[in-house]
Amino acid sequence: MKTLILTGIRRIGYEVAKELLREGYRLVVVYRESREKAESLKEFGEVLPLQADLTKPESWDLVVEESVKHFGKIHGFIHLASPYARKGVLEIKREDLYEYFTPVAEAFFFISQKLYPIFMKNEGEVKGRIIAFGDWAIDCPYRDFSAYFIAKGALHTAVKVLAKEFAPHVLVNCIALGPVLKAEDYTEEEWKKILSRTPLRREVPIRDIISAVKFLLTAEGITGEVIRLDGGRHLAGTGV
Questions:
Q1: Which of 22, 23, 182, 230 is most buried (CB neighbours < 10 A)?
Q2: Is residue 78 in some structural domain?
């Protein structure tokens, strides 16, 4: 039975966690405020809910230490945690930038770094797998989300860096999402406009995301890859 650490369960992460538990994985689910959701996952399988604020560097040690203390071996790390809110570029202050950069990119890098020697104790040629969740629009960002895109861009780079550094025994990959669930500060009209610019003209199904995660948790010949699950949005661009 394999154990995974999963950060961020408020939206997409919750559905991913449920399916992985049904598949027989044991999970450490790291949440900031979604305590009830984290606890509710226990009905699907073996879960350690762990409250942590990833904007605080001391939480990174806590996540790894508590996970190992509870489950012993750790086999994978899935990083979904990310703020997402609209703010004009001229309004961004340093603390706004780090509100995104720290939990998205720094936490990913340092938790991965701390997990590497733990992974290396596992048996087999592939000893650990790391999956980050990025964004399709890193190469074509849209307006008013500058802090978010700077953080996600660093995350994409960290995936490639760690894939090379951790080879050949730990695989590191990224799933770059397009339109999946309407953001809370988007109106229905804005959401429909986004979907209309997407070649497939529909949301990316959660089942596709789950399938991609399962693939990356079992594949042995892929690392340093950014897989776009965006309905073809990258072909159309932002239109702005």
A1: 230
A2: yes
